[in-house]
C-alpha cells in the first residue's frame, strides 16, 4: 500500500508516499480501513527527530507517520471481543495513521456514534482527549478557577476554552491576530490577549487584579514558558503540553519558587489513556458534549494524503485555526 513514511528525520520534505507492507492484525488487534488521519504537532516532533529519545513515543526508522485516525474495522485478530467488521471507530496514540490501512490494539479503539461525522470523531481523538485530560485531570478545573490558554484559536486551544467554560472556569486566551482573537471569543473566552501587541503576562495580571491564574495551559513552549510561569497565582500550576515555538529544554527550579512556589509539569497524553475504560469515559464526555451542542469542533482544512508535507508546513507555520485532517 502507499503510505506517508520517512526514512530519516528532517523537515516536511521527508514526508513521501512510499510503498509499505499492508499490516495484518495480531492477537488483540484490529485492522482498520482509514478515512481520515489527524495532523498534529506530535507528528512534527516524530518526523523531525525531537522525540528520538522518547520512551513513550518511540520513533523507529523507517516509520509511517501519524498518531490519530478514524475509519472502519476490516478484520479482527484473535481474542478481540466487542467489535465486528464494519464498525466505525477512531483512535489516537498509535503510530501509522498516514496510510489507507492501520493495525491498532483493540482496547484503544472508540466506537463512533451513528450520527457523528467521521471528520469530527477523528478530530475529537488526540486533540479532544488532550483538552479533556488537561481540564479534567492534569488540573481539574472547578467554578471559581481561572486559566490561561495559549493559542486559543488552535485545534486544542478551541476545545480547551470550551471545556474550561463547561467546568465553570474563567478563561483568558492568547491569540496572534485579530481573526484568531475573534475565534477564541466565539469559543467562549472571557478575555483574549493579542500577544504580538502586548506582554501577555502583564495583561493577565491586569485582568486578575495582580493575582494571576490557577493554571496555564501552554503548548507554545519556548517563546512563552517564562511568562506562563510568571502568570500564575501562588502555588499555581503551569502545564506545558507542546512546543509550537520549540520544545522547552530547561526550567530553573529557583524560578518556580520566585514565581510564587508554583508547580510545573510536562505530561504525555498516553499517560492519561492507560485503560480502555479511561479512553472510553473521556471520549463519551466529548461525544455527549458535542451531541448536546456544547462543544464545537472546528475543522480548518483537509489535505489529500499525498499532500502531507503541505499539511506539516501549514501547522508549523502557525496558520491553523482549528483541526487539520488528511483525507485517506
Name the poorly predicted regions.
Answer: none
Q: Summarize the helix and strand pattern as letters.
A: EEEHEEEEEHHEHEHEHEHEHEHEHE
Q: Which whole number gives the mean pLDDT?
A: 97
Whole-Å distance between the termini? 12 Å
Output the CATH class name of the largest domain.
Answer: Alpha Beta
Task: Please characterize this protein's 3D structure.
Helix 3 crosses helix 9 (276-291). The chain starts with a strand and ends with a strand. By secondary structure, it is of the alpha/beta class. Helix 4 (155-166) links the parallel strand 9 and strand 10 (170-175). The protein has ten helices and 16 strands. Helices cover 28% and strands 26% of the residues. It folds into two domains: 2-124 and 297-327, Medium-chain alcohol dehydrogenases, catalytic domain (Quinone Oxidoreductase, Chain A, domain 1); 130-269, 3-Layer(aba) Sandwich (Rossmann fold), CATH 3.40.50.720. The strands form three sheets. Strands 3, 5, 6, 7, 8, 15 and 16 form a seven-stranded mixed beta sheet that branches. It has a six-stranded parallel beta sheet with strand order 11-10-9-12-13-14, sandwiched between helices.
Ordered list of secondary-structure elements with their pairings:
Layout: E1 2-6, E2 16-19, E3 29-39, H1 41-48, E4 63-64, E5 68-76, E6 88-92, E7 101-105, E8 110-111, H2 118-123, H3 126-138, E9 146-149, H4 155-166, E10 170-175, H5 178-186, E11 191-194, H6 200-207, E12 213-218, H7 225-229, E13 232-240, H8 253-258, E14 263-265, H9 276-291, E15 299-304, H10 308-316, E16 323-327
Parallel strand pairs: 9-10, 9-12, 10-11, 12-13, 13-14, 15-16
Antiparallel strand pairs: 1-2, 1-4, 3-5, 3-7, 3-16, 5-6, 6-8
Helix pairs in contact: 3-4, 3-9
Amino acid at each position: 500500500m502507499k503510505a506517508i513514511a520517512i526514512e530519516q528525520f528532517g523537515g516536511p520534505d521527508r514526508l513521501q508516499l512510499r510503498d509499505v507492507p499492508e499490516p495484518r492484525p495480531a492477537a488483540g488487534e484490529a485492522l482498520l480501513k482509514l478515512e481520515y488521519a489527524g495532523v498534529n504537532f506530535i507528528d512534527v516532533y516524530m518526523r523531525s527527530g525531537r522525540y528520538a529519545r522518547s520512551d513513550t513515543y518511540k520513533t523507529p526508522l523507517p516509520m509511517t507517520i501519524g498518531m490519530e485516525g478514524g475509519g472502519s474495522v476490516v478484520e479482527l485478530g484473535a481474542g478481540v471481543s466487542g467489535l465486528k467488521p464494519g464498525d466505525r471507530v477512531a483512535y489516537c496514540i498509535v503510530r501509522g495513521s498516514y496510510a489507507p490501512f492501520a493495525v491498532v490494539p483493540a482496547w484503544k479503539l472508540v466506537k463512533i456514534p451513528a450520527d457523528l461525522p467521521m471528520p469530527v470523531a477523528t478530530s475529537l481523538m488526540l486533540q479532544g482527549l488532550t483538552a479533556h485530560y488537561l481540564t479534567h485531570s492534569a488540573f481539574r478545573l472547578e467554578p471559581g478557577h481561572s486559566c490561561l490558554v495559549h493559542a486559543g484559536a488552535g485545534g486544542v486551544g478551541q476545545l480547551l476554552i470550551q471545556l474550561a467554560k463547561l467546568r465553570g472556569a474563567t478563561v483568558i486566551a492568547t491569540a496572534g491576530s485579530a481573526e484568531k482573537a475573534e475565534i477564541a471569543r466565539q469559543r467562549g473566552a472571557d478575555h483574549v490577549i493579542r500577544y504580538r501587541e502586548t506582554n501577555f503576562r502583564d495583561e493577565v495580571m491586569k485582568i486578575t487584579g495582580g493575582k494571576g491564574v490557577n493554571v496555564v495551559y501552554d503548548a507554545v513552549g519556548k517563546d512563552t514558558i517564562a511568562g506562563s510561569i510568571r502568570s500564575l497565582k501562588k502555588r499555581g500550576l503551569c502545564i506545558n503540553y507542546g512546543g509550537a515555538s520549540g520544545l522547552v529544554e530547561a526550567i530553573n527550579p529557583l524560578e518556580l519558587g520566585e514565581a510564587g512556589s508554583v508547580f510545573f509539569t510536562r505530561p504525555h497524553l498516553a499517560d492519561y489513556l492507560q485503560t480502555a475504560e479511561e479512553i472510553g469515559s473521556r471520549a463519551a464526555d466529548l461525544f455527549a458534549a458535542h451531541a448536546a451542542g456544547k462543544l464545537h469542533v472546528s475543522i480548518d482544512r483537509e489535505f489529500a494524503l499525498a499532500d502531507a508535507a503541505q499539511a506539516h508546513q501549514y501547522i508549523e507555520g502557525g496558520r491553523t485555526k482549528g483541526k487539520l485532517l488528511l483525507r485517506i
